[in-house]
């Protein structure tokens, strides 16, 4: 699943380039850096491979989302539609720019149900934010259509789906803006890092400036640069970018191991009656970092999750998870913040605690997800799939 499993010589080589020169900053210091520009090189590598016009690295996936929202001019009182199943960073970013997270139901794609999105649109809606959970895609065809019809933006949270594609295009490059995370447990890691992708030049200029205190990056004299707009410091360091660049060079290897392992698991479970698989709209495009199955009831899913754990098969039961599903987001439901929100902001927030997310519950409560390791040998995957098969058959035949 995560790139850190493949930590090795390539990461050390790129890091060493930076350590040798001692220039840990991505901008300026031309005469001292032995011509190493790891952040720039990583951006260009993504741009080239993913066939996108512009890439801006950031300090994290969270700051990538914040940057994308800012770059598109999303702020006070604007509504952003996102799914009930995501990582908390998605709604944190929306709240941080003063906007309103509107959480809507998911379907068996494990992300936005386009019908729920359509129903949630109001005159305040500015953005649909699909989250491509666990390596695979939201229904971008339907969502793009809805966005177009209502003249709103599509900002992809592709943080969990680096390298995945939909109908031949990379996730993160299909909406108006797309965001990736390179935190320590993502498909490719920088330690900490993120990226914003766009084909829109104006948005790119904003991302370039916003992540560096508004610097316009014109000329070679940092001190003399102008600041067309306010910004913040969401820069990535050269050390982090060096790791990301090294990992990126192994993306094909990462994807092919994951896809092969997933195929073995899925084939092994195909014939089991009483389970089904996550609906993946473009199976070939799945980055295959995870493998999700549905049981028919919550009770069976809980049983399966526990029984798999007992047999040493790592798995996630998201319905009880603190970080990824609305049920346990009490800090959001109670709007607990250290610094209080403006009254006007707070008053616009929906009552998440009393909202009806039963459609999402009905999906997530039946879902069990197995993370796919890059380190499993062929024999180990075979063995694991036999164990999974046995465990599930036993539960389902009772
Ligand atoms: C990891 C993640 C983020 C945030 O990324 P960080 O780099 O950890 O800040 C945002 N959205 C989703 C869906 C994620 O999984």
Name the descriptors.
alpha/beta; Aspartate Aminotransferase, domain 2; Aspartate Aminotransferase, domain 1; seven-stranded mixed beta sheet; three-stranded antiparallel beta sheet; 38% helix; globular
Q: What are the SSEs and their pairings?
A:
Layout: H1 9-21, H2 38-50, E1 54-58, H3 61-71, E2 79-83, H4 89-96, E3 100-104, H5 114-120, E4 125-128, H6 140-150, E5 153-157, E6 165-166, E7 169-170, E8 177-181, E9 194-198, H7 201-210, H8 238-248, H9 251-269, E10 276-277, E11 290-294, H10 298-310, H11 330-333, H12 343-348, H13 358-364, E12 367-371, H14 378-396
Parallel strand pairs: 2-3, 2-4, 4-5, 5-8
Antiparallel strand pairs: 1-9, 6-7, 8-9, 10-11, 11-12
Helix pairs in contact: 1-8, 2-8, 3-4, 3-7, 9-14, 10-14
Describe the protein.
The protein has 398 residues and is α/β, with parallel strands linked by helices. The protein has 2 domains: 249 residues, Type I PLP-dependent aspartate aminotransferase-like (Major domain) (Aspartate Aminotransferase, domain 2, 3-Layer(aba) Sandwich); 146 residues, Alpha-Beta Complex (Aspartate Aminotransferase, domain 1), CATH 3.90.1150. The chain is 38% helix and 13% strand. Strands 1-9-8-5-4-2-3 form a 7-stranded mixed beta sheet, sandwiched between helices. The chain has a 3-stranded antiparallel beta sheet with strand order 10-11-12. Strand 6 and strand 7 form a beta hairpin. Helix 1 runs antiparallel to helix 8, helix 9 packs parallel to helix 14 and helix 10 packs across helix 14. Pyridoxal-5'-phosphate binds next to helix 3 and helix 4. This is L-glutamine--2-deoxy-scyllo-inosose aminotransferase KanB. Belongs to the DegT/DnrJ/EryC1 family. One of its GO terms (biological process) is polysaccharide biosynthetic process.
């Amino acid at each position: 699943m995560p790139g850190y499993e493949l930590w090795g010589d390539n990461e050390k080589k790129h890091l060493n380039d930076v350590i040798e020169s001692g220039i840990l900053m991505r901008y300026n210091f031309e005469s001292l850096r032995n011509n190493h520009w790891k952040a720039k090189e990583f951006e260009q590598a993504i741009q080239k491979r993913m066939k996108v016009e512009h890439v801006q690295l950031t300090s994290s996936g969270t700051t990538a989302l914040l940057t994308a929202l800012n770059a598109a001019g999303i702020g006070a009182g604007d509504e952003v539609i996102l799914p009930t199943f995501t990582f908390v960073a998605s709604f944190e970013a929306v709240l941080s720019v003063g906007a309103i997270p509107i959480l809507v139901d998911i379907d068996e794609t494990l992300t936005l149900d386009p019908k729920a999105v359509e129903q949630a649109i109001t005159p305040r809606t500015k953005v649909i934010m699909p989250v491509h959970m666990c390596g695979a895609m939201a229904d971008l065809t339907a969502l793009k259509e809805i966005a177009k019809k209502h003249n709103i933006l599509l900002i992809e949270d592709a943080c969990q789906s680096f390298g995945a594609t939909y109908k031949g295009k990379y996730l993160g490059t299909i909406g108006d803006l797309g965001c990736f995370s390179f935190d320590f447990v993502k498909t490719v890691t920088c330690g900490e890092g993120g990226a914003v992708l766009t084909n829109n030049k104006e948005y790119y200029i904003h991302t370039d400036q916003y992540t560096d205190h508004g610097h316009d990056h014109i000329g070679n004299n940092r001190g003399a640069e102008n600041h067309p707009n306010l910004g913040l410091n969401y820069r990535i360091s050269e050390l982090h970018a060096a790791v990301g660049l090294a990992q990126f060079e192994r993306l094909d290897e990462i994807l092919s191991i994951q896809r092969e392992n997933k195929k073995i698991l899925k084939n092994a479970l195909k014939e089991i009656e009483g389970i089904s698989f996550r609906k993946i709209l473009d199976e070939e495009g799945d980055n295959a970092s995870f493998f999700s199955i549905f049981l028919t009831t919550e009770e069976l899913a809980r049983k399966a999750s526990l029984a798999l754990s007992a047999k040493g098969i790592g798995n996630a039961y998201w319905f009880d998870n603190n970080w990824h599903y609305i049920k346990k987001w009490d800090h959001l439901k109670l709007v607990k913040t250290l610094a209080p929100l403006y009254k006007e902001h707070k008053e616009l927030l929906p009552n998440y605690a009393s909202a009806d997310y039963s459609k999402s519950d009905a999906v997530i409560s039946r879902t069990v997800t197995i993370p796919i390791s890059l380190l499993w040998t062929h024999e180990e995957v075979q063995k694991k799939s036999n164990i999974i098969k046995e465990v599930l058959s036993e539960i389902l035949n009772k």
